[in-house]
Design a protein that fits this description.
- The chain has one domain.
- Helix 2 packs across helix 5, helix 2 packs across helix 6 and helix 6 runs parallel beside helix 9.
- 67% of the residues lie in helices and 0% in strands.
- It starts with a helix and ends with a helix.
- It is mostly helical.
């Protein structure tokens, strides 16, 4: 086994594989409908890096586990998805997806959808802001 796989990392290769698999699943047309360029922006990587991530080997996954920026972005995206699912329950998951995709009058988004707001900013901070907004809605739900 490669020494890199034995090191203490913020996540395990199995956890990274699960996070990437979840992200790619939610990126599809029946959820967030993200094209490759949008997926790359959300993860903070280039398109070439995204293609490598999609085809990662066990050693590649171990290297990705040390990419704290990627881990934070995946965590925030999962938190956004989870919060939307909780807020919209017991309605179908498609309702949560529509909220993410449709323009919002909330000041933070400047009449853009949360998805378009995050993509236009392209920063971890924009992910944090959307997540905090949803957390505040959860507090009143």
């Amino acid at each position: 086994m490669n020494d890199l796989l034995k090191e203490k990392l913020p996540c395990t290769p199995d956890q990274m594989r699960a996070a990437i698999s979840w992200f790619l699943g939610v990126s599809e047309s029946d959820h967030w409908n993200l094209v490759v360029e949008e997926q790359a922006v959300l993860l903070g990587v280039t398109i070439e890096q995204l293609l490598k991530i999609k085809n990662s080997t066990e050693i590649d996954l171990a290297i990705l586990c040390d990419d704290r920026q990627l881990i934070v972005r995946l965590s925030l995206l999962l938190g956004i998805y989870k919060a939307l699912r909780i807020i919209s329950s017991p309605l179908p998951p498609s309702v949560a997806c529509k909220w993410f995709l449709n323009p919002s009058s909330f000041n933070l988004y400047r009449n853009k959808s949360p998805k378009d707001y995050i993509l236009s900013e392209g920063t971890v901070e924009s992910l944090y802001k959307v997540r905090r907004h949803l957390d505040s809605l959860l507090a009143y739900n």
